[in-house]
Design goal:
There is one protein chain. The radius of gyration is 17 Å and the shape is globular. Helices cover 3% and strands 42% of the residues. Strand 4 and strand 5 form a beta hairpin. By secondary structure, it is mainly β. It binds dtdp-4-keto-L-rhamnose. Belongs to the dTDP-4-dehydrorhamnose 3,5-epimerase family.
Length: 200
């Protein structure tokens, strides 16, 4: 994690934190505490647009998982999805992998601990594989997507693909609990990948 930048979007302040993957961002919305608790504008279309991030999301998903569950690494072909991920309760280790051929970060991954105790969002653009491991008793994960669910385009890369060398924090968790579908995931070398990276 490198540079921290603060952008002003009207009255609202969003801290944008660069990550080892140039197009993946951690976002910390401003919180307004008072004697009742706190308030925050977690997402505004115009604020995101001012940051060069998508203004429109078409779907919001929530999943609940118990400790040791690993979902991923998922992406969609045909109708791609950018994802804005937030943890409502519990703690996960969230992973993004750049799958865009030609990208400077192609084949690179980054992992982030996200917890319901912090107001933090992770922005993962189209063309990335996404997955997470639940490291707390349970976790509620909420994410908006820029594209609709498109089952025909669903793809999965194995969480344990040795070419990716993802350092999942599995200490004390043992073998992760994955779905039957994820167990049939592809190795990246054999996977049908998203469209090539387009430099901005
Ligand atoms: C993802 C999704 C699933 N479903 C259904 C299909 C299935 O019956 C059930 C569970 O689906 P899955 O096993 O694919 O759910 P899950 O393994 O949680 O899939 C999700 O994983 C994370 C890591 C992502 O990044 C998401 O984009 C999505 O791929 O929910 C929908 O109706 N809409 C959706 O958008």
């Amino acid at each position: 994690m490198t540079i921290s930048m603060v952008y002003l979007c009207d009255h609202s302040v969003m801290r944008v934190i660069d990550t080892p993957l140039q197009d993946v961002k951690l976002l910390r919305p401003k919180q307004y505490p008072d004697e009742r608790g706190w308030f925050s504008e977690v997402f505004t279309g115009k604020g995101f647009s001012a940051l060069g991030l998508p203004e429109h999301f078409v779907q919001e998903n929530q999943s609940y998982s118990s400790r040791g569950v690993l979902r991923g690494l998922h992406y969609q072909l045909g109708k791609q999805q950018g994802k804005l991920v937030r943890v409502l309760s519990g703690t996960i280790w969230d992973v993004a992998v750049d799958l865009r051929p030609g990208s400077p970060d192609f084949g690179q991954w980054a992992g982030f601990e996200l917890t319901g105790d912090e107001l933090e969002l992770l922005w993962i653009p189209e063309g990335f594989g996404h997955g997470f491991l639940v490291t707390s008793e349970s976790a509620n994960v909420l994410y908006k997507t820029t594209g609709y669910y498109y089952p025909a385009g669903e793809r999965c890369i194995r969480w344990d693909d040795p070419s990716l060398k993802i350092d999942w924090p599995l200490e004390g968790l043992g073998v992760p609990n994955i779905s039957a579908k994820d167990a049939t995931g592809s190795y990246m070398s054999q996977a049908e990948l998203p469209p090539a990276y387009l430099p901005k």
